[in-house]
Amino acid sequence: MKKIILSIILISNSCYASDCFEITGKAYNIDPLILKAIAWNESKNKNGIKSKINKNGTYDIGIM
């Protein structure tokens, strides 16, 4: 039952990537298509992707 409730909450409150690109583009005066292109170039729009280890020992997680 807890899993069902959690799933409903997550689905109803999720921010779709295209909405986030639109909102962020308006906030920073950047064309959302540019943001989408950057996301595609960096991760092919895969949410859970993890980058190779950076020079400083850290790594990046997510779309951008």
From TrEMBL:
The UniProt record lists the keyword GTP-binding: no
Signal sequence coordinates: 1-17
Organism of origin: Escherichia coli
Protein name as annotated: Lytic transglycosylase domain-containing protein
Keyword annotations from UniProtKB, A to Z: Signal
Keyword Signal belongs to the record: yes
